[in-house]
Amino acid sequence: MKQFFFEPMSNEDLSWFLSVRNSVRQYLHNSREFILEDAQIWFMNLGDLEYYKIFILQENGLRVKIGYIRFRNIDKSNIGEIGLDLDPKYQGLKLSVQAYAEFARANKAQCKVWTLRVRKSNQRAFSLYTKLGFIVVGEFYSNELEENEYLMLVHVEHVASITNQIG
Ligand SMILES: CC(C)(COP(=O)(O)OP(=O)(O)OC[C@H]1O[C@@H](n2cnc3c(N)ncnc32)[C@H](O)[C@@H]1OP(=O)(O)O)[C@@H](O)C(=O)NCCC(=O)NCCS
């Protein structure tokens, strides 16, 4: 049976985090490649409203880190900015809908609405967000990325209500 866990990211996770982050950087808002020293400084300076959790898959008693969740509480109560990046080895396995649903159940008291920005070209992520119930509330051009991005939002309660879909 597959089970998910979310554990706070620590300094020991930084080199693993960085290799995942750099390998998916073409999908992110900042597609620069970072080095470990950058990541250490960034992690030390993360603000109170922002945190990263390691997304762990447990199967047959074995635990593997498969990605990370990033979360920022924008107004300290109602609106949070969310994101999930998976290690390429674990992409395309349909793990992310369930991960978001479990994370929503664990965190729905923390905020009511999740928002995110996604590149218009990132069709896989866009399909996922649509499946989770996110709706597009804006589209704008990013000079930095030289492409359009969507601003999307969803009620956390809706994501939390998604039932078990993995075996
Ligand atoms: C985006 C991401 C979290 C999705 O997780 P995942 O577990 O790989 O996604 P899934 O396997 O559940 O696939 C999601 C859906 O997209 C569909 N999909 C896959 N590739 C696609 C493509 N190229 N175009 C359109 N849809 C695609 C899948 O078929 C699936 O829909 P379905 O269940 O109806 O078949 C993961 O791929 C990832 O970490 N990507 C790199 C980083 C990233 O893009 N982060 C998000 C930045 S906003």
Summarize the structure in short.
Helices cover 28% and strands 37% of the residues.
Question: How is this structure best described in words?
Answer:
The chain has 167 residues and is an alpha+beta fold. It has one domain (2-160): 3-Layer(aba) Sandwich (Aminopeptidase), CATH 3.40.630. It is 28% helix and 37% strand. Strands 1-2-3-4-5-7-6 form a 7-stranded mixed β-sheet, with helices on both faces. Strand 2 (50-59) and strand 3 form a beta hairpin. The longest helix has 12 residues, at 96-107. The mean pLDDT is 93. Coenzyme A binds at residues 24, 27, 83-86, 91-97, 118, 122-125, 127-128.
Quaternary assembly: single chain
CATH topology description: Aminopeptidase
Number of strands: 7
- What's the architecture, going by CATH? 3-Layer(aba) Sandwich
CATH superfamily: Gcn5-related N-acetyltransferase (GNAT)
Strand content: 35-45%
Widest sheet, order of strands: 1-2-3-4-5-7-6
When the domains are counted, the total is: 1
What's the arrangement of secondary structure elements?
Elements: E1 2-8, H1 14-23, H2 36-44, E2 50-59, E3 62-73, E4 79-86, H3 96-107, E5 113-119, H4 123-132, E6 135-142, E7 147-155, H5 156-160
Parallel strand pairs: 4-5
Antiparallel strand pairs: 1-2, 2-3, 3-4, 5-7, 6-7
Keywords for this structure?
binds coenzyme A; 5 helices; 167 residues; Aminopeptidase; globular; alpha+beta; seven-stranded mixed sheet; 7 strands
